[in-house]
Amino acid sequence: MGTLAFMISEFEVAGEIMNVLQDHDKIRTWLISAADSAISLPSKAVAKEGALRLRSAIDRAVPIPYEPQKQGALQSLGDVCDTPRAREFAELAGSLRWVESERWNDGGKERALCVLSDAFDLPGLEVGIMYVDSGCAYPIHNHPPQEVYLTISGTAQWRYGGSKTLVDVRPDSVLYNHPFDLHTVQAGDSPLVALYVLWGDEVIKS
Ligand SMILES: [Fe+2]
Fold first, then answer.
1. Beta bridge partners of 149
2. Residue 30, domain CATH
3. Closest Cα partner for 74 from 42, 50, 56, 100?
4. Is the pLDDT of residue 11 over 70?
5. 143 Cα: distance to centroid of ligand 1 (angstroms)
6. How far is the CA of 115 from the centre of ligand 1 (A)?
7. pLDDT for 151-203, tens place per residue?
8. Residue 60 backbone dihedrals phi, psi, to 5 degrees
9. Cα Rg of the chain, angstroms
10. pTM above the 0.70 mark?
């Protein structure tokens, strides 16, 4: 009995490790496609630099094991469907580790972050996915590192790039924030999903 129990537990552990590796492969593939898109879409050269850094780093980035975690905001995931990349994201989202935003104390009910630079070793980069439920906002903020966004799903109102006004931005758009630019986004009638990349000497991995 002891030997059988040991074998079962070994098998279960091996299965869990396989699942983790498979998820990393799917995330890596999705990130490569997103980075390629951000490089090819119209944007400032400096914004392309962030996408290029992600593209060159993600190919061989060492995976870091993680435990999937959900937040309440993701209950509206079924409304994320407006592009092929958005639909791929919706399939992946349940296997990701979602955390509350430290900028808004809502217990993850209206907005959540997936810090992908905690799932891959990406030196000098902070990479993640922002999810803001329909009708909700991500609070205005700034930070020393520059930042590029690739919008994945949801037409939303963004303030970015040093502007003081909100403008409508559709999925598959590239936005750039200089260091310390104040920026925010107000989701429209469907959830807002965006990939972000921060880079520069000021990026400190937590
Ligand atoms: Fe930001």
1. 175, 196
2. 2.60.120.10
3. 100
4. no
5. 7
6. 13
7. 999 999 999 999 999 999 999 999 999 999 999 999 999 999 999 999 986 78
8. -120, 15
9. 18
10. yes
> For residue 8, what are the contacts with CB-CB under 8 A and spacing of at least 6?
none
What distance in angstroms lies between residue 153's CA and the mean position of ligand 1's atoms? Answer: 17
pLDDT tens per residue, range 94-127: 999 999 998 888 999 999 999 999 999 999 999 9
Contact of 147 with 50, CB cutoff 8 Å: yes
Residue 206 resides in a domain: no
Give a yes or no: residue 63 inside a domain. yes
Q: What percent of the chain has pLDDT over 90?
A: 81
Task: Give dist(CA 87, CA 50) in Å, integer.
Answer: 24
- The Cα–Cα gap between 38 and 58 comes to 14
User: What is the tens place of the pLDDT at every residue in 26-46?
Assistant: 999 999 999 999 999 988 899
CB 103 within 8 A of CB 139: yes
Q: Which amino acid is at 96?
A: L
Residue 204 lies in a domain: no
How many angstroms is it from 200 CA to the middle of ligand 1? 14
Instruction: Indicate the number of domains in the chain.
Output: 1
Give the distance (Å) from ligand 1 centre to CA of residue 59. Answer: 24
